[in-house]
Amino acid sequence: MKRTIIVVDxxxxxxxxxxxxxxxxxxxxxxxVVILRIYTLPVSYSSDAIALSTLKDDYDTNQDRLEHDxxxxxxRFPDVHIDARLVTGGLIECxxxxxxxxxxxxxxxxxxxxxxxxxxxxxxMLNSLTALTAPVLLIPMHIKYKATQNIGFACDYQTxxxxxxxxxxxxxxxxxxxxLHVVHVATKAPRSEEIAHENEAMINELLTxxxxxxxxxxxxxVIESIAHFVKEHNLDFLVVIPxxxxxxxxxxxxxxxxxxxxxxxxxxxxxxx
Length: 273
Hints:
Blueprint: E1 3-8, H1 13-29, E2 31-39, H2 49-76, E3 82-88, H3 91-102, E4 106-111, H4 123-131, E5 136-140, E6 150-154, H5 163-176, E7 179-186, H6 193-206, E8 213-218, H7 222-232, E9 237-240, H8 247-252, E10 268-270
């Protein structure tokens, strides 16, 4: 079965940019694209006849606009199979349903603002980075697609990779033919060195097939160090695993969002724990 990329479309400029990114990625990866428009009922919704009529008109307008967008992207990317879906509900609820129904290899979403303004985002968008079983790629609005040559993976050796994560990394590298750069930033926080060494050796063995390059750094400023690494190695996007209560999990739950501003120049792919 052909690989599938879901692109979430809220008709915004950031979604437009994410759609362009997703279609170009699909063209390079020989994948199909599903444009997903999630229609959420207005908070002020009531069940009287006038409200129902207005709601239906609004829904029909969304359907028409979605079809218009889909046709436009089909014209731009004639070699990419593009479907369009309009669903009703909340973001995470609908995405979970689509993950079950479509089984996408990747979900692409556009960042409505820079990462340093993450606190202004809809909380459901942030939660989707940790709540879904499919990988989620977040595209800053000013980032344009380019052929993927270098992929970074911010790896924490306190936790070993599970089979699904290993398989995705291998699929990613085998599809893009990019180089994988695995970077680990060690802090002085009390951790089990024995566990870290065991997991590091296990990860090295698990990823042998795709021949990544490994890097180690020591710093208390993890995000800043990774941001410097991203620029130094000209990475096209960064893969992170938001382990529960770990650094990336906290960032995506608005605990340390200002740090993520240092990664404004690169898409971030959240690979689920």
